[in-house]
Amino acid sequence: MDVNTLKLKLTVSTLTAYHCFIQIQCAGYRA
Known about the structure:
Elements: H1 3-30
């Protein structure tokens, strides 16, 4: 696995985690 692939996977996983966190926050505010 090369460095670019590793960076891409890390970026995607970070964005996914951040998106999930935002969704949880928004759901909490709506409740």
